[in-house]
Amino acid sequence: MTINHTTYPCQAGLPRHAARDPNAGRRGTLVGALGASIKRWLFGLTFAVLQLMTLSSAFSATPVWQTLPAEQPLPPLEEGRVEHDGASLWYGVVGSGKPVILLHGGRATSASWGNQVPSLVASHRRVIMIDSRGHGRSTLGDKALSYELMADDVLAVMDRLKLRRADIVGWSDGGIIGLIIAMRHPARLDKVYAFGANMDTKAIGEPLPSPVLPLIGPRLEAAYKSVAEPADFEKLTAAVRLMQKNEPNYSDAQLAAIRGPKIAIVGAEYDEVIRPAYFAHLADTIPRARLIMLRNVSHFAPWQDARAFNASLIDFLGH
After folding, report:
1. Is there a contact between 89 and 81 (Cβ–Cβ < 8 Å)?
2. Is the CA virtual torsion 239, 275, 288, 286 positive or negative?
3. From CA 8, how far away is CA 86, in angstroms rounded?
4. Alpha-helical regions (H) of 144-292
5. Which of 60, 102, 199, 210 is the most exposed place for a label (fewest CB within 10 A)?
6. In the predicted model, what is the mean pLDDT of the chain?
7. What CA dihedral angle connects 301, 305, 307 and 312, to 10 degrees?
8. Where are the domains of the chain?
9. Which fold has domain 67-317?
10. Residues 298, 270 contacting (CB under 8 angstroms)
């Protein structure tokens, strides 16, 4: 005798007595519903945990002004030298269009502008970088370092390049130099973007606590030694420190007499040594100067938030 066993889908894998249980289907439905509820609860719990992790990460992330990212390397440059007042001054040029001169800060080199050069070139600017006297590839000469001497050096490079007028972008000491040229030779400039500049030694306060400051000296020294021949960073540091101890010291009356170029006084919300109130005072004192405050960055904004810095810079130069 042959027995045909037919198994229905709802009974597959169940014992024979379970298959005959009239409540089996109902229990299966309840178990399935419970499983779906548990899955939904687990999904919700997982999503909530991920959200908390994301918020925790955001709150625990290091503030931008406490970071010091590396700048991009400079692109290939057309390089040259100008002999002026006892020093050999290095300059580098890239791009085409209206000229803009980049002046770095104290003890730095033109390599500081690595994050800015591509954006300026892309905005159709001829970018000219100058290593200030005694900095980077430029020699110090026998004269005592001074801001006005370095301002005259910039004019010597402009003359060599046959630039009647140009824009200047200065960072810290470079901003001071740009403002001095605006004061003494306004006909040579169209615009000055002075970031982190002080025109009075009394504007420099006690440095705010920052994890960035101990990293600056070694970084500047490494950049200097990579290009300077011969290299004497200690001598440069001594010359810069002596200059900064006594300069600049321009009165409000001298600043109020500036006429000609359009000027942006640019400060950082967390500048380690210059308080925001001073930048506001400087902008109020110089006629028609525009105050720009960059948020969530420090004296090293061109490295910390290049995108925001470049957007501010290009917007000012373009209007």
Report:
1. yes
2. negative
3. 102
4. 147-160, 173-184, 213-225, 233-246, 252-256, 276-285
5. 60
6. 87
7. -30
8. 17-60, 67-317
9. Rossmann fold (3.40.50)
10. yes
